[in-house]
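Justification of computing resources. Each target in the renewal requires a structure prediction run like the one illustrated here; the chain below, 104 residues long, is used simply to show the kind of job we budget for.
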Amino acid sequence: MDLSNLSVSDLRTLQENIKQQLKKREQQEIASAREQILAIAQSVGLPLSELVNGIKRPQKEKTTVSVQYRHPDDATLQWTGRGRQPKWIKEWVDAGKSLDLVRV
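Resulting C-alpha cells:
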C-alpha cells in the first residue's frame, strides 16, 4: 500500500481504522485464549478456579527485623540498622558518640 499518495485526511481516517482494528483483534485474541484455557481445564477435569489458583505463588511470610539500636534515654526511639538513619542516630554520631553505646 502506497501511503505517499494519500491526503492528510485519508491518513487520519486510516490511522483511526487501524486503531479500531487493533482493538478488535486484541479482544478476539483474548477471547480465543480464554476459550483455550477453559478447554484445557475441562480436558483434565479441573475447575478453572483450581487451575488458576494453582499457578499463584505462595505468599512469603513477613518477618520483622529485630531492633539493633535503641536510644538510652527514650526506649521508643529505635532503629533496625537498615535503611536511612533516623534523626536521633545522626545526632548521636554527629555528637561524636559511638553507635556501640546504643547497640542492643
